[in-house]
Amino acid sequence: MGAHLVAQFSSVSRFTSVNYMNKKAQKTYIRLLVFTVCPVSLLTKEPRKLMENAAKVGTVAVIAAGVGLGLYLLHLKKQRSASAPPVPGEAHITTNDGIRLQYECTRLAGTAANRRSPVPPVVLIHGWSGSCRYFDSTIDAIAARTGGTVYAYDLRFHGRSDKPSWGFHVHRLAADLHDFLTELQIQQPVVVGTSLGCAIIWAFIELYGDDMLHKCVFVDQAPSQWIFSDWSFGSKGIYDPASLAKIQGALFAGMDSFAQGNAECCLSHTLPGPLMELLAQETLRCDPEHLARLMADHACARHASSNLLVAIFIVHLMASDCIRSHRIASESI
Fold first, then answer.
1. Sheet strands side by side (includes 215-219)
2. pTM for this model (two decimals)
3. What burial letters (b/e) apply to 197-210, b meaning 16+ CB within 10 Å?
């Protein structure tokens, strides 16, 4: 076995020989190689021959050690890069089906004093036809208040994220959230969903459980928009086949008028003109067919997470026109 190894090593390092070294270098080199060669020599019946080829064996060993050290340093670099705090600003991740999701990250000094434990990161998930720009006025405030890192990303089909011809399901968007948390190594976040974002969190828990999450915040969305015989807390806007067809028709009638009407429908008070324009422009980034197909899945979905163990906080805006009833019983959720 030892001779066989020497033969292979020799073919790799045929141009390296002890003969090319001076006497002092030969002695030093051989002494260093003893620690590598001796264990191997015990496996062969030709230890003398193996020692005669020690220079060649040593050369390969040195090369291998160099390569191994280089790979180890590269591994350390990647590991440090992966565990390093995210760089504030815009970036993207790639989902397991090759879709790029654009996101923003903000990290500011917190105002809360005497913190004794790490602050969990916050992930903001926007609603249908929106984008992460909807959080422009809140993302910095949340980061400053908590002292942690806050993320907001564009769902697929929305904003600056990719808009493929597949994946028109809330559970696919939940898988995107899983990819987002995994790729950025976001551990135990507080996830905040608004409208469709709430449904994405529920679908995430249905698929993956709640072990990856610290807390959940649901803003202005019932577990089901659809009205059923045992569920009357659905959406005021889209709750049956007729209302779904109506909003799909509005999409295909013209995105400009839809964008303006959609913003006005979802607001409970008047916003400044520039902000209204931003909301409309972000909606115009979407494709009407994509929105129609996604809403068909979103509206009919009924989410149930009876084994939810993380802390949840439900925010229903009393002046909102999104949910049919202000009385959402906890036992119904």
1. 89-94, 100-107, 149-153, 122-125, 190-194, 215-219, 311-315
2. 0.68
3. bbbbbbbbbbeeeb
Cβ-Cβ contacts under 8 Å for 139 (sequence gap 6 or more)? 104, 106, 124, 150, 152
Please give the C-alpha separations between residue 307 and each of 171, 202, 205, in angstroms, as whole numbers.
18, 11, 9
CA 58, CA 52: separation in Å to the nearest integer?
11
Which tokens hold the place of 100?
A: 């790029």
- As beta bridge partners, residue 124 has 152, 192
Give the pair of three-digit tokens for residue 39: 């264990």
**pLDDT of 72-95, one tens digit each?**
555 544 444 443 445 556 799 999
pLDDT in tens, 265-312: 777 778 888 888 999 999 999 999 999 999 999 988 776 654 555 555
Q: Any residues with CB less than 8 A from the CB of 168 and at least 6 apart, and which?
A: 157, 290, 293, 294, 296, 297
- The alpha carbon dihedral of 193, 174, 123, 296 has a sign of negative
Among 236, 214, 233, 234, which Cα is nearest to 313's? Answer: 214
CA gap 129, 175 in Å, rounded: 19
Report the amino acid identity of residue 23: K
Contact 21, 33 (CB under 8 A): no
The tokens for 268 are 């409970």
Contact 57, 36 (CB under 8 A): yes
